[in-house]
């Protein structure tokens, strides 16, 4: 079984799938700027990038102007042609603390299947990530001392509720909610419901 997010399309891509979510217009503008930035960084003309990605030059022109509405397949093809991760084209600049509620975030849809992908965070260059599955019960707060400089933690709640984030300003999260915050400053995790389940990704730069 192949995954349209991790498997390049076998034929020419187009703009058949819509961008979803409440920030769709902003996301399309972000994608347009990202495509243009990465194309210029690579020194490719619009015609050459369109040829490598297997899309029409007019389609690429629409995307770069913010008038297009790219599918997962189109963005994957462009990412491959530009030699950059898919996420770099859709992930907006990351603030120090970032919270994504379930139903929010940059969503792209497949043109070939009932499939939607939400980029929560792209991995920066030269980063290392450890992934943890957390099971917690209400009671004592798990207070963490600062980790090594440059550490960022990413947390997504799968079940239950929890208070997560910087010690001074933790955020209450429910199933499907996501937060990222500096791991090199004091931070907490406190379960608010029985059998709270979460995934924590610790990113070291």
Automatic annotation (TrEMBL):
Residues 1-25 are annotated as: Disordered. Residues 1-11 have a biased composition (Pro residues). GO terms for molecular function: DNA binding; DNA-binding transcription factor activity. The keyword DNA-binding applies. InterPro entries: Cro/C1-type_HTH, Lambda_DNA-bd_dom_sf, RmlC-like_jellyroll, RmlC_Cupin_sf, TransReg_Diox_bact_type. Gene3D superfamilies: Jelly Rolls (2.60.120.10), lambda repressor-like DNA-binding domains (1.10.260.40). Coiled coil: none annotated. Residues 35-89 form the HTH cro/C1-type domain. SUPFAM superfamilies: lambda repressor-like DNA-binding domains, RmlC-like cupins. GO terms for cellular component: cytosol. Keywords: DNA-binding. This is Helix-turn-helix domain-containing protein. It comes from Streptomyces sp. Y1.
